[in-house]
Amino acid sequence: MIKNIGNYRQTILYGISLAILLLLLRWLELRYVILAHSFEIYAGAIALLFTALGIWLALKLNNPKVLTKVIEKEVFITQTANFVLNEQNLIALKLSARELEVLALMALGKSNQEIADQLFVSLNTIKTHSSRLFEKMDVKRRTQAVELGKKLSLIP
Amino acid sequence: MIKNIGNYRQTILYGISLAILLLLLRWLELRYVILAHSFEIYAGAIALLFTALGIWLALKLNNPKVLTKVIEKEVFITQTANFVLNEQNLIALKLSARELEVLALMALGKSNQEIADQLFVSLNTIKTHSSRLFEKMDVKRRTQAVELGKKLSLIP
DNA sequence: CCCAAAATCACCCTAAAGTATGAGGCTTTT
DNA sequence: AAAAGCCTCATACTTTAGGGTGATTTTGGG
């Protein structure tokens, strides 16, 4: 439960110092037979000392209040650099992984034939994918699909 | 106001340990038939009191150190919102005003026929514009032209 | 294991995009 | 005035894109 003794070291040291002080006073009392009227002096000294100790303790123990200042800093970010896919939109459109892949390649300006070559499938397959893609996205052309895809953060 | 008691636990523990210490001294006093010099008790009480006073003083007077924590909050700025045309790139490519206009409409996903209708010219004119556009931009397809146009900040 | 969705491919057809070439009118620059 | 550049349009042609239909295989979840 108490992991770090270090936190209580000050308290322990303080207690020890108090004990030593009291013993010292006791010793002085016995040694020099302190007169009763000098009690006020001791009391004052003790008061002063322990006030200082209290202050020191409080300052040590009091965690500095951290005032978090949130400063809005306008950061221009190329949206390609830190692109995060909007999964909500993706799910909403019910696009399959392959369809999204085709869309991404379309956005790069690739032709259907180039996409087919890159994905190692036939041209007809890409045509089928693109058709389904346009149907799901409710667009008529690939340029519209790309435009909408970027707006919905489906592609960078 | 004081949210975390945990900060003061050490202080409380210190008070308790002090009390125990005093009791111990009292017990020693009785044990060894120490004369009823109540000086220690007074000293302890004063010590306790003024320690508390010191703590209280310190907490009252101590201005909380304001640790300004600057958190850079990234504000995403849609590039469409504050689009500025990169005239250098435009001049470098030697695009005419009409060609840029056609490119912008292409970027919106419009077909050549739609662009022709919108600009009140014939389909063939748009084809000519687009051909020259692709030639100047050194691209083969409209999707590539749009991609490059956005990259070069020719269009939002 | 079975079913549904996804992925794959083919064929045919139409629409759109893109290329090539030529040409007339218009403005700006030299 | 001539040259150059831009905008316009046309015709003819090729390529690419896209729609419709049908089919097979793969795959993930109940």
From TrEMBL, chains A, B:
GO terms for biological process: regulation of DNA-templated transcription. InterPro entries: Sig_transdc_resp-reg_C-effctor, Tscrpt_reg_LuxR_C, WH-like_DNA-bd_sf. Pfam families: GerE. Keywords: DNA-binding, Membrane, Transcription, Transcription regulation, Transmembrane, Transmembrane helix. Residues 87-153 form the HTH luxR-type domain. GO terms for molecular function: DNA binding. The chain crosses the membrane at residues 12-29, 41-59. PANTHER family: DNA-BINDING TRANSCRIPTIONAL ACTIVATOR DEVR_DOSR. This is Regulatory protein, luxR family. It comes from Pedobacter insulae. The lineage of its organism: Bacteria, Pseudomonadati, Bacteroidota, Sphingobacteriia, Sphingobacteriales.
